Amino acid sequence: MTRLFTWPLDLIRLLLQSMGLAFGQIWTNKVRSALTMIGIVIGVASVTSVIASLTGLKTSVLKEFESIGASRIFIWAERPQTGRQKNASWRTIQLTPELFDHALEYCPSLQYITRYAHMQETVKHGDVSVEGVIVIGADSSWNQVENRRVQQGRPFSLIDATEGTNVCLIDPALQEKLQLEKECVGRTIEVGSRTFVIIGLLEPRVESMFDDQGDEGRTFSIYAPFNTIYRITQYMTDVEAAARTPAQSEEARAELRFFLRKERRLNFDDPDNFGLQAVEEIMRKFDEVAIIITMVAGGIVAISLLVGGVGIMNIMLVSVSERTREIGLRKAVGAPPSAILLQFLVEAVTLCLVGGLIGVLFGQLFTVAVMAAATKAISGGKSGMEPIQATIPLWAVGLAFGFSALVGVAFGMFPAIKAARLDPMEALRHE
Amino acid sequence: MIRLENVRKLFKIGRERIHALDGVDLRVEANEYVAVMGASGSGKSTLMNIIGCLDRPTSGVYELNGKPTTEMSQGDLARTRNRQIGFVFQSFELLPRLNALKNVCLPMIYAPGGWWGSKKRARAALERVGLGDRMRHRPNQLSGGERQRVAVARALANHPSILLADEPTGNLDSRNSEEILSLFDDLHRDGQTIILVTHEVDVARHARRIVRMRDGRILSDLPREDDPVISRAGNPAGSAP
Fold first, then answer.
1. Which residues of A28-60 are buried (b: 16+ CB within 10 A; e: fewer)?
2. Which of A228, A231, A364, B14 has its CA 20 to 30 A from that of A63?
3. A425 and chain B: CB distance < 8 Å anywhere?
4. Which of B79, B97, B112 sits opposite A10 (nearest CB)?
5. Is A216 within 8 Å of A381 (Cβ atoms)?
């Protein structure tokens, strides 16, 4: 009865004792243990840092995409590589303003759509002039598509849009640069040879890692009604649309494609003469790439853990043969084979787990270094961008330890069985 | 307590077959003090290993406290060694990295529930062998005689039915040998069953019963007083009547 009660306690006690013995053994053979662990340390450090870097990069990139708007879809004209329009003139390929007149009616998953026309002009206010300001012509729904509100004044009205009046929305950065007063609505600025009335001040632009301009060569932009700019340039550059939700963007993209093919009278075997890209799609592709990289890294790591495991097995075999007499004595005083097996198995696993722990620490250090470098590379030396945050996710730590323990059990098993099977008499006679 | 009946042990070395034990019958009762004597190769070590459950006989019956050991698994044999047998070896076999106390604790680690209060029992055992003041010493800080006394304390830790000593004084000088043997005498007086394997007459003289072996058989099995060699040498001064 007492035995029935005490055996789980006995097992725990034996485990704890074996762990104590294992740590003692590792401590006694510090150099040897450290060398043996290197394989595991490198394996675990690389897998955890790869996972951490990717996860950090992923959250950071996805956050960027979120800020752009995950439901956005870009549309542009593109001459097909094959088919009858392969050598068509750009005039026949380019997008036309009327093309999208009925887009929202035919594409139920779409919520907003805006056409774009661009030009570059020198903008003047009083004595201050700024060169190379990008003047963007956009539809009234632009505020919704881009998700930038007017913080002062008003957006484009229906009259502005249809008549193509000389009104504009201004970016706070340019407002500052032009030394306009805070209450700038109603003021006029010179855009090239034309005079525009400021009707609204936009919210500041969200900093993004995709803005590749540095502080110096920074470009400024103002926004005018599409018709105003189109009338000047006679050229429509591209279109942006927003699906009702990010989840619907795939559907919206398909609807748009069908709509455009019909509107542009393409036959069923003609290739598209336009390009369509949904942000959600890019995000998904990025996700897929991240998974593939993780898997490849995982494979490499598996190999390095295997190598580490062989090292563990080797050292455990050495340990068993060195301690043959000890094993013999332990057996003589009553250690059953299972206790000896447990002792050596626990020792191998402890060795691996300590290696794993060191590996995780190194992995985190490595991740921080990689992220600092990555931040620098992406921001192009632009100061002020906060470093991408990356820590080893908890599941990866668990995975690393789980794997280390598994390697310990797998490669420690053979030496442990060898120890457990030793004949006590022979072992005691061993020199 | 111990009953061996027609026990044989066969070793095969290459093609050669060696009968290390060739039909041994032996009974040892509680509180006996037996010396097994014989030249090397006489089978006394093999007999010792079988009595100590380190090895199983090829044929024959070995009963320890009424339980046959022939069919026991390795685990059962280990448990039996743990509870019933206390070993003392010629070369002490102490673990060098553990201090005296921890060395004595070793058999208790493998006893179920034996861990509870093991330190206390180990201390008592060390005091019993007169090493109460050297518990924290490591084997390399102890003299040969002290080391062997630690080994005796370890052998006694689980209160075994039998103390099995294989040439316990083989690595000791005569003064330390005497120390160990008088310790054995004390233990015997307190009721401990002791089986001693030796080829030295001076050591065997401490036992009450002398078993002589040759070629795997028992040559003679006599009380000390009747053994021709030992009785001729006379009673040692230190032994109790």
1. ebeeebeebbebbbbbbbbbbbbbbbbbbbbeb
2. A364
3. yes
4. B112
5. no
Give the span between the Cα atoms of A350 and A346, in whole angstroms.
Answer: 6
Cβ contacts of A240 within 8 Å, gap of 6 or more? A72, A73, A74, A75, A113, A114, A116, A145, A146
The string of pLDDT tens digits covering residues B89-106 is 999 999 998 999 999 999
Please check whether residue A254 touches B, CB under 8 A: no
Query: Is A332 at the interface with chain B, CB within 8 A?
Result: yes
Query: Which tokens hold the place of B34?
Result: 């037996």
- Which of B19, B73, B60 shows the shortest CA–CA distance to B214? B19
A187: amino acid identity, one letter:
R
Q: Say if the Cβ atoms of B110 and A339 lie within 8 Å.
A: yes
Residue with tokens 């685990």: B75
pLDDT digits (tens, 9 = 90+) for A134-189: 999 999 888 888 888 899 899 999 899 899 899 999 988 888 888 888 888 989 99
The secondary structure of residue B194, as a DSSP letter, is: E
Backbone angles phi, psi at B68, to 5 degrees: -70, 140
Rounded to the nearest angstrom, the minimum Cα separation between A411 and chain B is 24
Model-level pTM?
Answer: 0.74
What residues of chain B lie within 8 A of the CB of A13, using their CB?
Answer: 115
Query: Cα(B19)–Cα(B198) distance, rounded to whole angstroms?
Result: 20
Nearest Cα neighbor of A70 from A320, A245, A195 is A245
CA–CA dist A20, A25 (Å, integer): 9
CA distance A242 to A223: 19
| Nearest-10 Cα torsion for B1, B6, B9, B15 | 180
Residues of B in contact with A339 (CB under 8 A): 78, 110
> B117 with B194: CB under 8 angstroms?
no
Question: A242: part of which helix (H) or strand (E)?
Answer: strand A238-243
> What is the 3-state composition of chain B as percent helix, strand, coil, each rounded to the nearest 5?
35, 25, 35
By three-state DSSP, how is residue A147 classified? coil
8 Å CB contact of A428 and B49: no
Instruction: Tally the C-alpha atoms within 13 A of residue B187's C-alpha that lie toward its C-beta.
Output: 33
Helix A279-322 vs helix A324-332: crossing angle, to nearest 10: 80
| Chain B residue whose CA is closest to A427 | B54
Helix (H, G, I), strand (E, B) or coil at B11: strand
Instruction: Give the Cα separation of A21 and A335 in Å (integer).
Output: 14
**What does the alpha-carbon distance between residue A10 and residue A16 come to, in Å, rounded to a whole number?**
10
* Interchain contact, B55 vs A425, CB within 8 Å: yes
Q: CB under 8 Å to A431, separation ≥6 — which residues? A: none
From chain B, the residues in CB contact with A425 under 8 A are 49, 54-55
Q: What is the pLDDT along chain B (241 residues), one digit of tens a residue?
A: 899 999 999 988 888 888 899 999 999 999 999 999 998 889 998 999 999 999 889 999 999 998 998 888 888 999 999 999 999 999 999 999 899 999 999 999 888 766 678 889 999 999 999 999 999 999 999 999 999 999 999 999 999 999 999 999 999 999 999 999 999 999 999 999 999 999 899 999 999 999 999 999 999 999 988 888 887 765 554 444 4
In whole angstroms, what is the distance from residue A411 CA to residue A348 CA?
8
